[in-house]
What we know:
By secondary structure, the chain is an alpha/beta fold. Helices cover 34% and strands 19% of the residues. It has 14 helices and 15 strands. The chain has helices at residues 55-66, 71-87, 113-125, 157-164, 187-196, 211-221, 225-231, 249-257, 266-271, 279-285, 301-316, 324-331, 371-374, 402-415, and strands at residues 2-6, 9-14, 27-30, 32-37, 90-97, 128-135, 173-179, 203-207, 239-243, 261-264, 288-291, 353-356, 380-385, 388-392, 395-396. The strands form 3 sheets. Strands 4-5-6-7-8-9-10-11 form an 8-stranded parallel sheet. A 5-stranded antiparallel sheet has the order 3-12-13-14-15, with helices on one face. Strands 1-2 form a two-stranded antiparallel ribbon. Helix 4 links the parallel strand 6 and strand 7. Helix 2 (71-87) packs parallel to helix 3 (113-125). The relative contact order is 0.17. The mean pLDDT is 96.
Amino acid sequence: MRIDVAGGRITAVTAGAPRGGVVLPGLTLPGFANAHSHAFHRALRGRTHHERGTFWTWRERMYTLASRLDPDTYYRLARGVYAEMVLGGYTSVGEFHYLHHAPGGKPYADPNAMGAALRQAAADAGIRLTLLDACYLAGGIGVKPDEVQRRFSDGSASAWASRVALLKEDELFRVGGAIHSVRAVPEDDLSEVDSGTPGNRPLHIHLSEQRAENEQCEAATGFTPTGLLWDNGVLEDRLTVVHATHLTDRDVRWLGEFRVGACFCPTTERDLGDGIGPARALRDAGVRLSIGSDSNAVVDAFEEIRALELNDRLASEERGRFSAEELLEAGTHHATIGWGEVGALAVGAGADFVTVTLDSVRTAGIEPSGVLFAASGSDVRHVVVAGREVVRDGAHLLIDRPETVLAKEIEALWRS
């Protein structure tokens, strides 16, 4: 099979072509889409398991980390994080970005300095980036932001929209919007964040990740978080709800009716003990599924993709919940972060593809159709993004030894 590329797009796909050009030995798939990431959470990996802990104690450690970052340190850390993603097979990432300002909430001279740091880090790592700039106005329903959370807040939805409007897109960088959660954006501001996000760009929200979020929302508004979005006209086909773990049957019907997307982050959801969301029920209702690495406790597209099936098996006590085609569709759903032209090995599509070895100890002897159940990120040998070779023979071509970059920056953050 020959894939011809020009101008970052696939111009021809020819079966039975003579061997020539750059030969990619193994199974070549469309590049994977990481639809939900918090890059700075990568520095928490392996550091949140003392004295067992809970979601809420994990969050406090995350806040400690957030208080130590500035544009320079965030740039250096994110370079390593995004390089790790490309090595694992991701060719685009949706960065759910809420760490906006200096400590105490004072804007930097460039009000988008933190977003610019992420943009440059992604460019260095050779990955497409959608900055899902998050509005974050409250520390909880009816609660003002605390000292750390003031870094996340623009003070009002209109001020958030004005700052986001200053961001300019380019070939590998796009901008979307995000409602952090119904805890962090008051009901009266939900529609303003929706309208403040351009209509041709994605809008995301953390939704029903924890039962406590549902309980607080219902006590304050009489609605589940999904119902609150419905009541405020925010449910729409460009919206992606992240986690969607604790949903009622009515929630599922609402999300399906409006053709909302749902991003599952199984490795983070199990790391935090969130629970298992109703992936199959959502897919059957008409919801588009995608996957994300979220806290980056694990960065491995294969692990996230197969967990959709394996988690649903645990919840339903049945096998065969998703076909391989459905799983691949979820793993390559770049449209949910605004890259609708990416995700297929077809003429006109963005030239993003990943080649997986079929002769490692994990993949030896498998049927190619079973690669999503057998391979890991370590089996990714070659990665091309927008027609540019970024990984060759398992090595990142743009950033030397990303593991060294990560080790240096993470150690420095925790020593500060």
